[in-house]
Amino acid sequence: MARRNDHTREELREMALASAERIIAQEGLAGLSTRKVATAIGYSVGALYTLFSNLDDLCWQLNERTLSCLMAAIKEVDETDPVACLQGCARIYQAFAEQYPERWRLLFEHRSNTDNPLPDQLSTRIGGLFEHIDGCLARLYPRIDRHERQLRSRILWSGIHGLTQLEHSNKLFLPDAMTAEDIRIHLIDSLLAGWDKESHHA
């Protein structure tokens, strides 16, 4: 078993999070435990608890890492056309869930066993995701106030997330000529068309 001083604290944390990702990819969320992570990196469970206060903390940090990865991909979308940007962000979200299904599930299925609030850094990551959508909507609808813009960004995300969840669960029940991408494109276009009408009548 490795000694604690064989790696820096940051190196050990990176090893632990990478191992945790591999474990949930191979065994699902139910297979994750601090003991398995410690065994995978060759350290004791006690050494692991110098980095994570408990399994909840490990899961929160995994989620923060997952959101960072997702946001890095979303930020690569061309923002020149806000409509195309929204469609691109939704496409990346669906593709991410398909590529990393267990990490995506952990974002929404992990429930803390304690009364600890959501960590600040994780809240910041989540806020960054919505700010990106808000930015696209601000350029499309410059006259709406902040509250309305935030409301619309949540409506958009809820629709895309629901579609992604159904696709991930094989519960879309699509006819042969239809794809999840068809629904995604039409969903966003329809919402924007409705909001365009509201803007013209305002």
TrEMBL record:
Q: Which PROSITE patterns match?
A: HTH_TETR_2
Record-annotated DNA-binding residue ranges = 33-52
User: Would I find Transcription among this entry's keywords?
Assistant: yes
All residue ranges annotated as the HTH tetR-type domain in the record: 10-70
Keywords on this record?
DNA-binding, Transcription, Transcription regulation
A UniProt-annotated Pfam family: TetR_C_33
User: Could you tell me which InterPro entries the record lists for this protein?
Assistant: HTH-type_TetR-like_transc_reg, HTH_TetR, MT1864/Rv1816-like_C
Protein's name in the database: TetR/AcrR family transcriptional regulator
What organism does the UniProt record list as the source? Marinobacterium weihaiense
